[in-house]
Specification:
Layout lengths: L1 E8 L8 E4 L5 E5 L6 H13 L18 E10 L2 E10 L6 E10 L2 E4 L5 H12 L3 H8 E2 L1 H9 L2 H12 L1 H32 L6 H56 L2 H142 L6 H80 L29 H61 L6 H78 L4 H67 L4 H7 L3 H32 L6 H67 L1 H26 L4 E6 L2 E6 L5 E4 L5 H20 L6 E5 L7 H14 L5 E5 L3 H7 L2 E5 L6 E5 L4
Parallel strand pairs: 3-13, 3-14, 8-12, 12-13
Antiparallel strand pairs: 1-2, 1-4, 4-5, 5-6, 6-7, 9-10, 10-11, 14-15
Helix pairs in contact: 3-17, 4-5, 4-17, 6-15, 7-14, 7-15, 8-11, 8-12, 8-14, 9-10, 9-11, 16-17, 17-18, 18-19
Length: 1008
């Protein structure tokens, strides 16, 4: 993962939006004073990616003071694919409003990637990066300072540091807890199995089971014989029952056959009736035709009479209507000339009527206009009076404004000069206060530095003293141990042996030096340990004092620099003010009071001047308005008189037109005469149309009656001929079958009833044949055999006895099989439970041993030792790359050494390395740890906490060279440092600057 752009706002010390572009960076330093927010940049990345930070705080706790919204976004690159993740928390309401977004660049544009929900976004990011939150925070930020302590510490201290870096402490605790839990669960399972075994009936009687198997085999052989006996008895019983049933069936069928023979006369009579009905059915078609012909003849005869009567009626009506139509045509010829004469007279009057209407409409329009003009005259007269009053009032206001204007004067060039210098005075005051504050702070830091310098000198003296004392006690302890060891060796010598201490021959005492064994080694060891602890405390005190001193020196330099810059800025501001005021003698308060006085006078003058100009403009407007209203009034009065004259002229013209129209219409109105003429025309047209329609209708009805009479006579002739023909044929058919028409009428029976008769006849014949057949079959089957109920009862008793014996044997056999199977199943279950118990007991022993080992240090030491060796092997690869194949890291006898390939493979302890060499070694270990924890995930970026308080020139050069070589390995490398010189050496810097309004980011040293 390689970050490309980071944006944060409302996050810890960054109140306002801050943005960092990493695209053109390879190696850079993150610098800034303590508390400015250097580590917050890494927290912002983890918050954007995972929604949380390593400090285990809630997002609300990261919100900048006074801010209501926290938002972070990170654009990053994984496997040449760009992603953009955005997270926002808004606290404008009681409940935080959360916004999440994850996008992927596709075809040059960012598009939503996956479901836009928090859990789904976190899962997708973990999958894309190949790391969860804990792994990411361990592999991205390299704690180089901790590895520096790791290299130089003792074995126990190294174990604690490595445990903390890798996170094994929690892993071992979890493993131990899980092993203990698993052991408890397995123990409960073992107790459950043992309890189950106790509850099982283990009294498996082998002899009893053998007897059961023998009895079972005997019954298995006996059951088929018993079953065969039962089958034979059941067959004999079934045969007797069947014989008894046949005897009963024979008697029943004979009785049914006798009853059936009694119905023979009735069936014979039914056959005769059925035959007559069938002959009648054959004649029914002819009868139907004859009957239809008779009905048709009667109907056509009646139709002829009706048609003749209708023809006479229609002929009479047509004659009457023809006379009425002729009279209507004569009346039309008489009335039409009269109507034409009336129409010509009306056309002449129509012209004058139209003129009357036009003149009348024009008079109404002019009267309406006259009213409107009179209204306009009234309104214009009022407007003239109002305008004159307003003009007088505004002239009075203008006079007052001129009087007030003479009382004030404008600010002039002096006010412009003061307005120009005011912002500079405000800034000058702010800088002046900041300079005074920085001077006070610098004096305070100088005093603290003097105190720290004194403490540092005291710590050095104490350290030198404790180190000399520790060395002295260590020499005395070694001497005592050697003496004690020599005395122990002499105790095992025999006469004539060579002394390993002095080289003499035992027991020639006069040749051997006198050796005395030390008697209080433990006291010397205790004193040596106490001295070593005092030395360590003195070392820590010296380191702390040195760190404090260097930190105060750094702060002193920073504040001295800031004070110099602020004093220069103050002097520049002073010069600008002098140039504007053209004098070096000025006071802020005096200038401020003068500016306020001039501003007030100028404001009053300008306000009155504006008011005066406004009133003058309004007077001009009012004068123009008054002149316009008077002109409009004169025009309206002229128009009013013109309308009055036009109305008089139109009324005279209207009177002349009415007189002419009255002569033409004989004192009646034109509209009434026109409506009467039109009504008479319509009445005449309706009468002619009605009579014409009636004439045509009666003529059509008469023609239709003629056609109906002709058709009725033709139908009657056809029906008469058909009737005669069918009557002859019907008489002939009756004679053939020797029927009369009366007999035929009686023989007609519905088909349903005939079918019922035929069914009765068929049933009779079928039943008779069936019964005769059954009687003959049963007589042949029975022969001379006979049986009764008593014989069948004897057979049933024998069957029941044999079946009971078979059932008893079957039940006994099944019970034996069940007992044998249950005993076998119980035996297998016991064996299975015993095997499970053995397996669980083995697992319990394993987990108990594992839990015990995990609680001890031995297992942890083994894992850490194995991990440490792998870490050293991988760190050696990085160290060779960083030192141009010079140094290799070795781990021998629980101590770290470096092998110098430029000195023929000479090895030396890491404590003897220079500052730059130590940095390279600890950085190699940090890189190796990051590589192992990432588990193969590609790391496109690393952030290093270099861990130095200060660096001398030589170490600074070495460290910067190492970091520059690291930055050439196709990855983004950021170094978090408190050493400004290191940032300068690396070139590109992300400076985090602290201000009252919040931290800001300044990026320097990027090449375009």
């Amino acid at each position: 993962m390689r970050p490309l752009e980071l944006t944060l706002e409302g996050f810890t010390s960054f109140r306002k939006q801050a943005n960092i572009l990493f695209e053109k960076m390879d190696l850079f330093a993150i610098t800034g004073p303590t508390g400015a927010g250097k580590s917050s940049l890494l927290d912002a990345m983890t918050l954007a990616l995972y929604g949380k930070v390593a400090r285990k705080t809630q997002p609300k706790e990261l919100l900048s003071q006074g801010s209501l919204k926290l938002q972070v976004s990170l654009r990053f690159l994984v496997d040449q694919t760009e992603y953009l993740v955005f997270r926002s928390w808004s606290y404008r309401t009681k409940t935080a409003q959360l916004t999440f977004k994850l996008e992927k660049r596709i075809n040059g544009e960012f598009q939503p990637f996956g479901e836009q929900k928090e859990a789904e976004i976190n899962a997708v990011i973990e999958k894309v990066l190949g790391m969860n939150f804990e792994t990411f925070t361990k592999v991205i930020l390299l704690p180089q300072g901790q590895f520096d302590e790791f290299l130089k510490g003792k074995s126990a201290d190294r174990r604690k540091i490595l445990n903390s870096l890798v996170g094994y402490e929690k892993i071992f605790e979890d493993m131990c807890s899980q092993a203990g839990t698993r052991a408890s669960l397995i123990k409960v399972e073992c107790n459950r199995i043992q309890e189950h075994l106790k509850n099982l009936d283990l009294s498996l009687d082998i002899e009893l089971n053998s007897q059961r198997r023998d009895r079972s085999q005997f019954l298995a052989q006996e059951l088929p014989r018993l079953y065969e006996t039962v089958s034979k008895a059941q067959i004999a019983l079934a045969a007797e029952k069947e014989l008894l049933q046949r005897l009963r069936d024979l008697a029943n069928w004979q009785q049914q056959l006798d009853e059936l023979n009694k119905q023979a006369p009735k069936i014979s009579e039914l056959k005769q009736q059925l035959e007559q009905a069938r002959v009648g059915d054959r004649l029914s078609a002819t009868w139907t035709s004859v009957n239809l012909a008779r009905n048709r003849y009667n109907k056509t005869q009646a139709d002829v009479e009706i048609a003749a009567k209708a023809l006479i009626e229609k002929q009479s009506a047509f004659k009457i209507q023809e006379d009425i139509f002729s009279q209507a045509q004569a009346d039309q010829a008489e009335i039409v000339p009269q109507l034409k004469q009336r129409e010509e007279a009306l056309n002449a009057a129509k012209i004058y009527e139209q003129q009357r209407r036009v003149i009348n409409d024009e008079i109404k329009r002019l009267e309406k206009t006259l009213i409107e003009k009179l209204k306009l005259i009234t309104e214009a007269d009022k407007a003239v009076k109002k305008s004159e009053a307003e003009l007088n009032q505004k002239n009075q206001i203008l006079t007052r404004a001129n009087n007030e204007l003479s009382q004030y004067s404008p600010g002039g060039s002096r006010l412009e000069q003061l307005n120009q210098v005011t912002p500079l005075l405000i800034k000058w005051e702010g800088i002046q206060k900041q300079v005074e504050s920085d001077r006070t702070k610098l004096q305070q830091i100088t005093q603290e530095l003097n105190t720290a310098e004194s403490d540092y000198q005291s710590a050095i003296l104490n350290f030198q003293k404790s180190e000399a004392e520790c060395e002295q006690y260590h020499v005395e302890l070694d001497t005592a141990r050697q003496k004690n060891h020599a005395a122990a060796l002499r105790a095992f010598l025999h006469t004539g042996d060579d002394c390993l201490v002095c080289g003499g021959i035992y027991p020639e005492a006069h040749l051997l030096p006198q050796l005395e064994s030390s008697g209080d080694i433990k006291a010397l060891e205790k004193r040596d340990r106490a001295a070593e602890q005092n030395r360590q405390k003195a070392t820590e005190a010296k380191t702390q004092a040195e760190t404090t001193r260097e930190h105060l020196k750094k702060q002193q330099a920073e504040y001295q620099k800031i004070l110099t810059e602020k004093e220069a800025e103050l002097e520049a501001q002073t010069q600008q003010i002098v140039i504007i005021l053209k004098t070096d003698k000025w006071e802020v308060n005096t200038l401020s009071q003068e500016q306020q006085s001039l501003q007030k006078s100028d404001a009053n003058y300008q306000e009155i001047l504006i008011h005066k100009e406004k009133v003058e403009a309004e007077i001009k407007t009012s004068e123009l308005n008054c002149s316009f209203i008077k002109t409009k009034l004169l025009d309206t009065e002229t128009q009013y008189q013109d309308v009055v004259n036009e109305i008089d002229r139109k009324k005279t013209q209207l009177q002349e037109t009415l007189e002419t129209l009255s002569k033409l219409t004989i004192s009646d109105s034109y509209d009434n005469l026109f409506q009467k003429l039109e009504q008479d025309k319509r009445d005449l047209d309706r009468r002619i149309q009605h009579e014409t329609q009636c004439y045509q209708n009666t003529r059509d009805e008469f023609k239709q009656a003629q056609q109906s009479d002709v058709k009725a006579r033709g139908d009657f002739d056809l029906a008469s001929t058909e009737k005669e023909h069918l009557e002859a044929e019907w008489k002939n058919n009756l004679e053939i079958v020797n029927f009369t028409e009366e007999i035929f009428q009686h023989s007609k029976v519905p088909p349903k009833e005939q079918n019922q008769w035929q069914q009765k006849i068929d049933d009779y014949n079928t039943n008779k044949i069936q019964l005769e057949t059954n009687v003959k079959r049963e007589i042949d089957a029975i022969g001379d055999k006979n049986t009764n109920v008593e014989i069948i009862a004897q057979h049933e008793k024998y069957v029941a006895d044999t079946r009971e014996k078979y059932k008893q044997a079957q039940d006994e056999y099944n019970d034996l099989k069940l007992l044998i199977a249950k005993a076998e199943e119980q035996r297998e279950q016991v064996e299975k439970l015993q095997a499970q118990l053995s397996t669980k007991q083995q697992e319990l022993e394993i987990y108990q041993i594992l839990s015990k080992e995990l609680r001890s240090d031995r297992f942890q030491d083994y894992i850490l030792q194995h991990f440490e060796r792998e870490l050293v092997e991988l760190a050696t690869v990085f160290l060779l790359e960083l030192t141009e194949q010079r140094y290799a890291l070795k781990y021998e006898n629980k101590e770290y050494k470096v092998e110098d390939n430029w000195s023929c493979g000479e090895t030396r302890r890491v404590q003897t390395l220079s500052g730059g060499e130590t940095f390279a070694t600890s950085l190699s270990l940090a890189l190796a740890l990051s590589e192992k924890l990432s588990r193969g995930a590609r790391l496109g970026s690393l952030f290093i906490d270099e861990g130095f308080g200060t660096l001398d020139a030589e170490t600074l050069k070495s460290v910067s060279n190492i970091l520059l070589s690291l930055g050439k390995q196709d990855r983004l490398v950021g170094v978090i440092t408190h050493v400004p010189a290191l940032g300068e050496e690396l070139g590109t810097q992300i400076k985090v600057e602290k201000f009252l309004e919040g931290s800001k980011i300044v990026v320097t040293g990027i090449l375009a």
